[in-house]
Each structure stands twice: as structure tokens, then as C-alpha cells.
């Protein structure tokens, strides 16, 4: 069973979703939770069976689909994708468990199960076509979730979300086809396997074009400035569960793809584009943080804060060293947990008041102390308080990029200031002061079902903030492998210089540890 | 007196084709449109036959027969539809047929 | 010894978590008692560690577990008890024990009693991490942790707009400085390869001065935020919105001195870059007099004490900047005792007068609040630096340092500040406790604080009196194991006595002047009409040199406006509008061309003919261009394309 665990992880939710049509409406919630729990346990089993000392791919599966064109069904996980898969399983589980009583709960749960299949598929796929298929399929359930359960402007938001990301992906698809064609030219055989592509060294001029093609697809998904405007609409209109999954997992597909495709395939182009991308990342960080500060709707604050944090992740990725890349992968998880929790928290108040406008609140700390405490914790995590999960990622990302550029890191570091400004301002508006609006006086505090989702997230936030090692270790090994691969493949002088040679470093690290 | 060669046939074909084209573009009556289409097809037939003779290859003439056959069947179907339309609407003016408007 | 280290470190955490269990329940007296006991146990453990260190035992250094490890980076949770950290630990645990006990009384009637203890103990825990950590990253944990607790405690009465505003201001302003600190940490890591103090400082000896200067500057920016040095000082006065025990513990004795601790801890670095040191000293001297002038006129007793803290922090930085690290640390310790005492006394006064803070509305309280009066007076004497109280030994030492090192400008500034310090301290003492009774007319019925609160304060009183002459030498011997053991003696005996006695006389004269001016029966509650209140100097000082105004007008407001512009104009009108514009363009193209599909057979046939002609002509053009490609290339190259 362990040999096929990835396939099981991908297709079990789908099969369960199909059977879900036959389940009675009233028992659907229990069914969904059961499927979510089984899936999550399977993902934990995957982690348990995962060999932390191996930096390469594990649990590989191989099945020919179109052998003539080298399209195969190849799966595998390494330290970078493992935890995102677990996170996806986890969020689907608690998402279903904490689902409020909306209309058509049955359809919602089935949609979520299909969404889970596509998410895990994206992170486990090692063949570009399979990756692309899951990448695009993930749009469909999300389109449905926003379009069917969203707010008043849900049609506009969902179509914008779909078309915008779809356009980007098409450019990416062209890039993939070209990449396969170049591979065919170089070797005489067709292959879409990413691991095969890793072995191909392209001339720098080709790299630049292909990098740009892939970049469009990924940048829209991340979303990077100035391609970010679909996100506030999608978040603004999506139901809570949609926002949670979108922020926690779907956005990570873009940054994950940077590490999986852009960096190892095009090391020279990565170095070439490092500064422009870093500048975009800094614009993302500061600009969206300022926009977040101007928002009146608390959900939009969290939505824009997501963009701001994704900027730090992109920056860490393009640090092109082990510290930065493992930091950015860790921050993906951290941001998933924290922004997911924040969206859930916004959902809690929306359930009660049916508004997300901050001027409708005020003084909630008195009425809902437990809610205020959890919100405060998550806010502090989002701000990057040490000993919470976000800090580890942010610290490492910025530390990594500092090696590349001092002044840009200094600018990016403004994230910790502007982040505090909009978050504290939002918290103050919602929770501090006197209760002025009559309806707020008797709001019930968080109930058991909501705590079921929030408590585990709070625990993870603190646990991985204090002891990130179990996660950071495997990530570090895989990040080292990526950096080493890049260093070996780099052709230009500058790239060789910018991308550190890890194998030399590993030795010095062990000697350093002996010193302790 | 000049001998009649391939070029003359082709010029004739072109003139016929142009007449047909103008007819297709200008005529508002469906029946006359069919006439224009016939002229177009026969312009091609003239060219086919002439070129076929010029190369001494019968394929072109065979093709011309095909065209005649197809033109006949097309006309049969077309006229049938035309009569039906006329029965229903009492007019075969093209400007009134806009139910396919996009 | 490790056992005691863990007790000292984790007892506050246990206390915080224990109190946190009861945050949702109504006030429970035992929560305060248990919390105080746990903090006291941390104090006892620290004392045992102190005797261990004093007894010449080896440095206690433990590594709890790995925190972050990736690439070249290795950060453990490591803790060290050496001569510097034990000094800080003693100060922190002692003052916090007293403040905890005091708070049982002070927060007696507050609904957030249990919550308060949870926050307060969490603060102690963060502070212990800050001072005990053996690496910069651990220091940063504590650094941010105390910032968080400070935010929680300043905004403790969250229903008050001013309190939450001040809390956010403090947090954000500290964040500005933390960025500097973070950059400093990055610099240390990439240049030395480690964040452990011992390894990093050892490697710094081989670095070039420019890098070291940058490291020194960025770390000091971090210190400037926590220690509220100019220009990041405005949050400290506003932080007085928090409950008074918080002000005593966080904003006087411990957290604000973290910056000084950082500079002292990094003494090996700053010793290599004397220019930065001189800058620190100059800034310190400037802040000393700058804050003291603002304290002269302020009409809020807590703010006066806060400015006084700021001023004393300036002294500490002056000493640390001049390389007299042990002197800075010594003044930090002495200052913690008498300043905490002063704040707690101020808290008693506030409590007695239902949170009234204007000393002009008090007067004559000495009759009803004898104990508080004695304590506050003695604390002020110690602060003013009168022999033989603590301030004399620590503060005059800083003056001597400046004098001996020939920094006469700094010396003069600090001397002048000493006079100002004495004046404003006794201004509020005179206004509160002496002179005419002005409070009864305003409807206040003061009462002395609980007995146990006064008893709890008494250790601070004793320390404020004796810390100078009993601790100086043993402390010097202990701490100079680690810090440069420079003794500062004025060479000529005569000059020394002239200086000392001169300073004493100057300070005493200031005190008498303050008494004389503010004990007179003619003092009334100022109503904005007197000549002094309309003078330029007064307005400048009461408005804090218009710096908060400047920040509000030229930083906060533009930021808010720019944010709105970015959202409403740029994000919606430009970025998003472009995207929608592209979509709209495609839509409009379809909308406009759908007329082609008119359904009119005749029109459609015309389009068909037009299309055929276009295609044919394209075919002809391409065919021709292929045929004549040679010629075309020649012509184009002739044109220089």
C-alpha cells in the first residue's frame, strides 16, 4: 500500500466524493469528516514513512500514459512538497469539520473533496502534463465554490478568478511544450518528466524565454504584483471555507512551482531575474500592506496581507541559497496555517453579524474574550512574533536574501513594520474600545465546532514556532539538493557565484555542530 | 484571325466569375442568388474544361461533371427550401431572413 | 546549577500559564499570590546562581534544544548565566517580585485581575529569555516578547482609546527599531557565520572596521527603540497609559534598559568601533538633557517620571558609549531600584486620588500618606544623586567617566542634567506632598495604600539607599571578569573633591529651589493664563518640542492618506482597471464585430467575398515576397535595417 500511497492520497477523496452523491443529506457532514480524517491520517502515515535523510524524491510511482510523447503518470514527494500535502489534507479536514450550516452542504463537501484531489495532485505530480492537468483542474471546484456560495458579486469574482489564472496557465503550458521540445531536440526522446528536465542544461537565452513563460503562470497564481487584483475579489466574495483553502493551499501552488520548476530548470535565468523579481516582491510587501491598512472590510485586510506575505515567500525563494529557500518553504506552511486561521476567524464573526465591516464592530474583546485571544494569537503570528510559526519562515527568508542584497533586504524588512501597522490597526478597530453597537452586546463566543478547527491551528502555530525542526529538517535537505543542482547546472559566471555550492558547506556545518 | 487559346477561356471564366460574384453580393432575391451561384460554378467549369484540354488530362473535365452534379442537387435542395420559405413567409427577399442574427 | 537556571527561567512561564487559566473567571486573589510566589522562586533561584557566580564558580551554560537549523545557520535555545546576565536577572526577578506583590493590592478592584498577572508574568519570562540567551536570535525572541507583553499591558484597559492607541504606538515604533536589530543580526550572521555571542564576538576581531561599524549601528538602532532614545522616544511617555505597576516594571526598571544591556553585552564589538561609541555617548547625553527639560513642566506625575527614566537611560548610554560598560550596568541596576520605587509610590498617589495625575491638583498629601511620602522622597534623593544613596555612586560615576575621558561637552551636559533632575523630581514631590491642600476642594478623599503594598515596596527603598556603597566594589569585581575593568579616577585628589562637592552642592541647590518654588501657598491649578504658561519655552516643552505633533502630521497622516490613495486610486483605478480594461477590450471587440453576424445572407456573403479577397491577396503577397526574397534582402540591407 505504501508503494501507492500518493495515488491513494490523490484519488481517495475523488472516489469518496463520487460515492458522496449517494450519501443522504443529513449524514453527509459525518461522511465528509470521516473521509477528511482518513485522508489526513494517510498523509500523516506518509510523513511517518518518509525518510528524513533522503533529499531526493520518495514514494515514486510511474505509469505510462502517452509513451510516444513521453507523457507519464509520475508521482513523488520530497521535503518541499511533503508538508504542503499534509497541510492540504489537514485544511480540508478541519474545513469540512467546521463548515457552518450553509445551503447545499452536500454539494459543498463533494466539491471540497474534489478540490482536495487536485491540490494533492499538483504537489505530488512529477510530470509536467500531469502537473498541468491538476493545476487547471483545481480551478473548477474553486470556481464552483465561489460562484455558488459566494457573496453578492460572486459571478464577477469567480469568473475573474478563473479567467485570470487560466490565461496565465496557458502561457505556462506553452512554456512546458517548448521545454519538452528542447528536450526532444537535445536527447532525441520526448519526455515531460520533471526529473528528466532537471538533467537538461539549456543555453541562457532559451532559459530567459522559458523562465518568462513559466513566470507568467506562476506569478498570477501567487499572486504577484501587479497580477494580484483577482485575489481580493475572490476572497471578498468567497465563502469562508473557500477563502481558507484558497489562501492556505492554492496560493502556495505558485511559489511551490517556482521552486519545483523555475529554479532548477533555469538557474541562470533565475539569477538574471533575481533583482527584478526581488523588486516586485518588495513592491508586493510594502504596497499591499499599505493597501491593507486602508481597507474597511476585515476580510480584505487579511486578503491583502496574504499578498504581502507571499512577497516575503517569493523573496526567500529567490535568495537562491539554502537558508532562503527552506525559509520560504517553511513560510508557505506558516502562512497557510496563519492566514487559514485568520480567514476562519473572520468567518466566525461573519456568521454572527453578517457583516465584515470593521466599523460595525469595536469592543469585541469584552464580549467574546476567547475569540479575541485566538484572533490576537493569530494576529501576532501574522505580524511575525518570534516563537510563532511565521517568524521562523520570515526570519530565514530575509536572512537568506540578505546574502544577495543588503539594501533590498532592508527594504523588504519594512514588512515587519507595515505588517504590524495594518494588523494592529485592524485589531484595535474590532476588539478594543467600548461596545458601541447594540447588536454586538450579546454575541456568543466561539462555539465548540469552531474551536475544533481553531485550537489545532493555534497549537501548530506555537509548536512549529518553538520547535520547527521536524519540519525544517526535511525541507532543509531538499532545499540543499535544489541549490546544489542549481549550482551544478549554472553556466554563467555570475550564477555560479550567486548560487552557493552546498556540498562544501555541508562539511563545514557538521564541523560546526561538533564544536558545540 | 487570332486563334482562340487557353487565355481566352480563362478570361471568359474570370468575367463570368466576376459577374457571379457581383450577383452574389448585390442580389436581394433568393432566386436570383441561385442564378448567380450557378454562374459562379459554371465559370469554374469553363476553367476546368479549358485547362483539362490544355494539359490533355481528363481529370479536369471529370471534375466539371462533378460540379454540375453537385450544382444540380444543391439547386434541388435550395429550391425546395425556397418554396417552403415562400409558402410560410410570402417573400423570398434576403433582407427579411435575419433570424440567425448574432 | 542548571536546575536553578531552569527554575529562574521557567517559573515565570508557569506563573503566566497558571494565571492564564483563570482569565475568563472573575477575580481570584490566589492567582496573584501564586504568581507572586512563582516569580519569587525565580528570584531565589537567581540569588543562588548569583552566589555561585560570586563564589567564582564556572559560567552556567546550557543548550536546551535546537531552534532553527538550516543551511549554515544553527540556532539553539541556549542560555548562559554569566556576570552580566546574572546582574540583569537579579534586577528583573527582584523588581518583578515586588511589582507582582504590589499589584495584588493595586489591581484589587480591577475585573481583569487574573489576566493582568498572566501578562505580567509573561513579561518576566520574555525578559528572562532576553537577558539569559546566549545568542542574538534568542535575544531577539525576548526582545519581541517583551514588546508583545508591553503592548498587552499598555493596552490593558482596552476600552480606553488612549490606552490602545499608546499600545499600538509603542509596538509599531519598536518595530521600526527591530528592523534595525534584525538587519544587525543578519550582518552578524553573514560576516561571522554564527549568532552565538562567544563565536560571533571572537570572529569580529578579524573583520574590517566598515562592516563592524554597520553592525554596531544597526544593533544600536534596535537598542534605540527599546530604550526609547531620540527620535524613537515618544512612545515611552504615552506608554504611561498602562497600569502603574506596569510602568514601574517595564517602562522603568527592566524592558527599557534592554537596549543598554544589548550595548553592554556587545561590548567587544563596540570596543572595536570607538566612533560609534562616541555617537552613542553623545546621543545619550543629548537624550539626558532633552528628556529632563520636558520633565520640567509636565503636569502628569507619571509622565514626569517617564521622562526622568528617559533621561537616566541617556546617562547609561553615555557611559556605555564611552566604554564604561560596568558603570552603565551599575547605573542600570541602581536606577531600577529607585525608579521602580518612585513609580510604585506614584501608583499609591494615583490610587488615593482615583487616578488623578495632575500634581497641581494634589498638595499636602504628606499628612495622609506618610509612608508613600517618605519612600518617594528618598527615591528622589537617590535619583538626584545625593550622598550616600545609590544614585550618588552610580550617576556621579558617569560624570567622572566623561570627565576623565576628556569629553567635557558630554560632562557639562550631564552635569546640567543632574541639576534639572533634582529640580523636576522635587517639583513633583513638593507639589504632591507639601504645600497647601488643593485636592479636598476637588472632592478627593485620599487614603494610604494597603500595608502590604508598602511592605512590598520596602526592599526597593532599602536597596535605593544602600545599593551604592555596599554593592559597588563586590559588583565591580564580579562584573569586570567579563567587562573591561577600567577604573575611573580623577588624577588630582583636589580636583576630585572639588568636582564631587561641587556637584553635590549644585544638586542640593536645585532641590531647595524646587521646594521653595512649589511649596508656596500661592500655587494654584494652572488655568493657562499665567505668564509662564504663555511663554514660548513653556509651550515648546509642554508640547514635547512638537515632536509628537510632527509625527502625527508628517508621518502618520501621510501614511494613512497614501494608503487610501494607493487603494482607491492605484489599486482599483490603475492596476485592476487595466486588467478589467483588457477583458473589456476583448468583450468590446466581440460586441462590435457581432454586427457582421447580422443574419442577413446578403451581408454575410459580402463579408465572405471580402475575406476571400484578403486571403488571396495575402497569398499573392507572400508568394511574391518568397520569389523575390533575395532582392528584398538587398534593398533592406541597403536601407540599413
Blueprint (SSEs and pairs):
The complex is a heterotrimer of chains A (516), B (102) and C (641).
Chain A: H1 5-20, H2 28-49, E1 58-66, E2 71-77, H3 79-97, H4 105-124, H5 128-137, H6 139-149, H7 154-187, H8 194-198, H9 204-221, H10 230-237, H11 240-265, H12 267-272, H13 274-294, H14 298-317, H15 322-353, H16 364-367, H17 369-383, H18 389-404, H19 406-413, H20 415-431, H21 448-466, H22 469-489, H23 493-498, H24 502-515
Antiparallel strand pairs in A: 1-2
Helix pairs in contact in A: 1-2, 1-4, 2-3, 2-4, 3-4, 3-11, 3-15, 4-5, 4-6, 5-7, 6-7, 7-9, 7-10, 9-11, 10-14, 11-14, 11-15, 11-22, 13-14, 13-20, 14-15, 14-18, 14-20, 15-17, 15-18, 15-21, 15-22, 17-20, 17-21, 18-19, 18-21
Chain B: H1 6-26, H2 30-55, H3 59-89
Chain C: H1 2-21, H2 29-54, E1 60-70, E2 73-81, H3 83-106, H4 113-132, H5 136-154, H6 161-192, H7 197-204, H8 209-226, H9 234-238, H10 244-253, H11 258-265, H12 267-272, H13 274-297, H14 301-321, H15 325-352, H16 370-384, H17 390-404, H18 408-433, H19 451-479, H20 493-518, H21 536-542, H22 547-593, H23 601-627, H24 629-638
Antiparallel strand pairs in C: 1-2
Helix pairs in contact in C: 1-2, 1-4, 2-3, 2-4, 3-4, 3-10, 3-15, 3-19, 4-5, 5-6, 6-7, 6-8, 8-11, 10-15, 11-15, 13-14, 13-18, 14-15, 14-17, 14-18, 15-16, 15-17, 15-19, 16-17, 16-18, 16-19, 17-18, 17-19, 18-20
Amino acid at each position: 500500500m505504501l508503494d501507492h500511497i500518493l495515488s491513494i492520497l490523490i484519488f481517495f477523496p475523488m472516489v469518496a466524493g463520487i460515492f458522496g452523491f449517494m450519501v443522504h443529506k443529513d449524514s453527509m457532514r459525518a461522511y465528509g469528516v470521516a473521509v477528511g480524517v482518513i485522508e489526513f491520517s494517510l498523509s500523516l502515515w506518509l510523513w511517518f514513512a518518509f525518510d528524513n535523510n533522503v533529499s531526493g524524491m520518495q514514494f515514486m510511482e510511474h505509469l505510462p500514459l502517452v509513451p510516444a510523447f513521453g507523457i507519464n503518470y509520475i508521482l513523488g514527494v520530497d521535503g518541499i512538497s511533503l508538508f504542503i500535502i499534509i497541510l492540504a489534507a489537514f485544511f480540508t479536514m478541519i474545513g469540512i469539520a467546521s463548515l457552518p450550516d450553509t445551503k447545499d452542504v452536500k454539494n459543498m463537501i463533494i466539491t471540497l473533496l474534489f478540490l482536495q484531489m487536485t491540490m494533492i495532485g499538483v504537489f505530488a505530480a512529477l510530470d509536467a502534463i500531469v502537473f498541468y492537468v491538476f493545476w487547471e483542474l483545481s480551478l473548477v471546484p474553486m470556481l464552483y465554490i465561489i460562484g455558488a456560495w459566494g457573496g453578492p458579486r460572486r459571478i464577477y469574482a469567480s469568473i475573474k478568478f478563473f479567467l485570470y489564472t487560466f490565461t496565465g496557465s496557458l502561457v505556462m503550458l506553452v512554456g512546458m511544450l517548448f521545454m519538452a521540445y528542447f528536450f526532444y531536440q537535445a536527447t532525441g526522446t520526448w519526455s515531460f518528466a520533471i526529473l528528466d528536465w532537471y538533467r537538461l542544461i539549456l543555453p541562457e537565452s532559451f532559459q530567459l524565454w522559458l523562465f518568462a513563460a513559466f513566470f507568467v503562470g506562476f506569478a498570477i497564481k501567487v499572486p504577484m504584483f501587479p497580477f494580484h487584483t483577482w485575489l481580493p475579489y475572490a476572497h471578498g466574495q468567497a465563502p469562508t471555507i473557500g477563502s481558507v483553502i484558497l489562501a492556505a493551499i492554492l496560493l502556495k501552488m505558485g511559489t511551490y512551482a517556482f521552486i519545483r520548476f523555475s529554479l532548477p530548470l533555469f538557474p541562470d535565468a533565475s539569477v538574471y531575474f533575481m533583482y527584478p523579481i526581488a523588486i516586485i516582491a518588495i513592491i508586493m510587501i510594502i504596497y499591499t500592506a499599505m493597501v491593507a491598512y486602508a481597507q474597511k472590510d476585515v476580510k480584505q485586510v487579511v486578503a491583502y496581507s496574504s499578498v504581502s506575505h507571499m512577497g516575503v515567500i517569493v523573496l526567500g525563494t529567490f535568495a537562491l541559497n539554502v537558508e532562503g529557500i527552506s525559509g520560504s518553504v517553511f513560510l508557505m506552511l506558516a502562512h497557510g496555517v496563519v492566514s487559514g486561521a485568520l480567514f476562519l476567524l473572520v468567518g466566525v464573526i461573519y456568521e454572527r453579524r453578517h457583516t465584515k465591516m470593521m466599523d460595525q464592530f469595536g469592543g469585541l474583546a469584552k464580549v467574546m474574550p476567547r475569540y479575541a485571544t485566538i484572533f490576537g494569537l493569530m494576529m501576532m503570528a501574522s505580524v511575525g512574533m518570534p516563537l510563532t510559526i511565521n517568524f521562523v519562515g520570515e526570519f530565514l527568508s530575509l536572512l537568506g536574501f540578505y546574502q544577495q542584497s543588503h539594501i533590498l533586504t532592508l527594504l523588504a524588512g519594512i514588512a515587519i513594520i507595515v505588517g504590524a501597522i495594518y494588523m494592529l490597526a485592524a485589531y484595535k478597530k474590532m476588539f478594543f474600545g467600548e461596545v458601541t453597537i447594540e447588536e454586538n452586546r450579546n454575541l456568543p463566543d466561539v462555539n465548540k465546532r469552531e474551536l475544533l478547527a481553531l485550537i489545532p491551528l493555534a497549537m501548530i502555530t506555537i509548536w512549529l514556532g518553538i520547535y520547527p525542526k521536524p519540519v525544517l529538517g526535511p525541507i532543509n535537505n531538499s532545499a540543499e539538493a535544489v541549490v546544489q543542482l542549481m549550482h551544478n547546472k549554472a553556466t554563467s559566471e555570475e550564477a555560479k557565484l550567486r548560487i552557493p555550492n552546498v556540498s562544501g558547506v555541508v562539511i563545514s556545518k557538521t564541523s560546526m555542530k561538533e564544536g558545540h | 484571325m487570332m486563334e482562340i487559346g487557353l487565355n481566352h477561356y480563362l478570361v471568359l471564366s474570370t468575367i463570368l466569375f466576376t459577374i457571379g460574384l457581383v450577383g452574389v453580393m448585390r442580389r436581394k432575391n433568393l432566386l436570383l442568388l441561385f442564378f448567380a451561384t450557378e454562374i459562379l460554378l459554371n465559370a469554374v467549369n469553363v476553367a476546368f474544361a479549358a485547362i483539362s484540354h490544355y494539359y490533355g488530362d481528363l481529370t479536369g473535365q471529370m471534375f466539371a461533371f462533378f460540379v454540375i452534379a453537385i450544382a444540380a442537387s444543391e439547386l434541388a435542395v435550395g429550391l425546395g427550401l425556397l418554396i417552403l420559405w415562400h409558402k410560410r413567409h410570402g417573400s423570398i427577399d434576403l433582407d427579411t431572413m435575419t433570424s440567425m442574427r448574432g | 546549577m542548571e536546575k536553578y537556571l531552569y527554575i529562574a527561567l521557567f517559573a515565570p512561564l508557569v506563573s503566566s500559564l497558571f494565571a492564564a487559566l483563570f482569565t475568563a473567571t472573575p477575580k481570584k486573589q490566589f492567582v496573584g499570590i501564586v504568581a507572586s510566589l512563582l516569580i519569587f522562586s525565580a528570584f531565589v533561584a537567581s540569588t543562588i546562581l548569583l552566589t555561585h557566580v560570586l563564589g567564582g564558580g564556572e559560567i552556567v551554560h546550557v543548550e536546551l534544544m535546537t531552534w532553527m537549523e538550516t543551511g549554515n545557520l544553527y540556532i539553539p535555545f541556549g542560555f548562559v548565566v554569566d556576570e552580566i546576565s546574572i546582574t540583569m536577572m537579579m534586577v528583573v526577578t527582584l523588581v518583578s517580585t515586588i511589582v507582582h506583590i504590589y499589584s495584588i493590592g493595586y489591581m484589587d478592584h480591577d475585573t481583569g485581575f487574573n489576566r493582568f498577572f498572566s501578562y505580567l508574568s509573561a513579561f518576566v519570562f520574555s525578559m528572562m529569555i532576553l537577558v539569559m540567551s546566549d545568542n542574538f536570535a534568542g535575544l531577539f525572541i525576548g526582545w519581541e516578547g517583551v514588546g508583545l507583553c508591553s503592548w498587552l499591558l499598555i493596552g490593558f484597559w482596552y476600552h480606553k482609546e488612549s490606552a490602545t492607541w499608546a499600545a499600538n504606538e509603542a509596538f509599531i515604533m519598536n518595530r521600526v527599531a527591530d528592523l534595525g536589530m534584525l538587519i544587525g543580526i543578519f550582518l552578524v550572521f553573514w560576516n561571522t557565520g554564527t549568532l552565538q555571542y562567544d563565536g560571533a564576538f571572537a570572529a569580529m576581531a578579524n573583520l574590517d572596521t566598515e562592516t563592524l561599524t554597520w553592525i554596531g549601528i544597526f544593533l544600536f538602532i534596535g537598542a534605540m527603540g527599546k530604550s526609547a532614545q531620540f527620535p524613537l522616544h515618544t512612545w515611552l511617555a504615552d506608554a504611561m497609559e498602562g497600569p502603574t505597576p506596569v510602568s514601574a516594571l517595564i517602562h522603568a526598571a527592566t524592558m527599557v534598559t534592554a537596549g543598554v544591556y544589548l550595548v553592554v553585552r556587545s561590548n567587544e564589538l563596540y570596543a572595536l568601533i570607538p566612533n560609534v561609541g562616541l555617537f552613542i555617548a553623545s546621543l545619550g547625553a543629548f537624550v539626558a538633557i532633552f528628556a529632563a527639560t520636558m520633565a520640567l513642566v509636565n503636569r502628569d506625575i507619571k509622565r514626569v517620571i517617564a521622562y526622568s527614566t528617559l533621561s537616566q537611560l541617556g546617562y547609561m548610554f553615555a557611559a556605555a558609549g564611552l566604554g564604561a560598560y560596568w558603570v552603565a550596568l551599575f547605573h542600570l541596576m541602581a536606577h531600577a531600584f529607585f525608579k521602580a520605587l518612585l513609580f510604585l509610590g506614584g501608583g499609591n498617589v494615583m490610587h488615593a486620588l482615583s487616578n488623578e495625575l495632575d500634581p497641581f491638583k494634589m498638595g499636602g498629601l504628606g499628612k495622609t500618606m506618610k509612608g508613600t511620602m517618605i519612600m518617594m522622597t528618598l527615591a528622589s534623593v537617590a535619583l538626584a544623586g545625593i550622598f550616600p544613596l545609590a544614585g550618588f555612586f552610580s550617576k556621579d560615576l558617569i560624570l567622572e567617566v566623561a570627565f576623565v575621558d576628556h569629553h567635557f561637552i558630554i560632562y557639562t551636559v550631564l552635569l546640567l542634567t543632574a541639576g534639572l533632575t533634582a529640580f523636576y523630581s522635587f517639583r513633583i514631590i513638593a507639589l504632591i506632598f507639601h504645600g497647601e491642600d488643593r485636592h479636598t476642594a476637588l472632592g478627593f478623599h485620599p487614603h494610604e495604600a494597603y500595608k502590604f503594598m508598602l511592605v512590598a515596596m520596602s526592599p526597593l527603598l532599602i536597596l535605593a539607599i544602600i545599593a551604592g556603597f555596599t554593592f559597588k566594589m563586590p559588583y565591580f569585581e564580579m562584573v569586570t571578569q567579563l567587562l573591561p575593568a577600567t577604573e575611573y579616577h580623577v588624577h588630582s585628589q583636589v580636583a576630585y573633591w572639588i568636582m564631587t562637592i561641587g556637584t553635590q552642592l549644585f544638586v542640593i541647590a536645585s532641590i531647595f529651589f524646587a521646594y521653595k518654588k512649589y511649596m508656596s501657598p500661592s500655587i494654584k491649578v494652572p488655568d493657562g493664563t499665567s505668564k509662564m504658561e504663555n511663554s514660548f519655552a513653556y509651550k515648546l516643552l509642554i508640547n514635547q518640542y512638537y515632536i509628537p505633533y510632527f509625527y502625527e502630521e508628517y508621518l502618520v497622516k501621510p501614511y494613512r492618506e497614501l494608503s487610501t490613495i494607493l487603494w482607491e486610486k492605484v489599486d482599483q483605478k490603475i492596476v485592476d482597471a487595466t486588467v478589467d480594461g483588457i477583458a473589456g477590450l476583448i468583450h468590446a471587440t466581440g460586441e462590435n464585430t457581432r454586427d457582421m453576424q447580422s443574419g442577413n445572407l446578403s451581408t454575410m456573403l459580402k463579408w465572405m467575398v471580402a475575406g476571400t479577397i484578403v486571403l488571396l491577396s495575402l497569398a499573392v503577397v507572400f508568394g511574391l515576397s518568397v520569389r523575390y526574397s533575395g532582392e528584398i534582402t538587398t534593398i533592406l540591407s541597403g536601407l540599413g535595417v
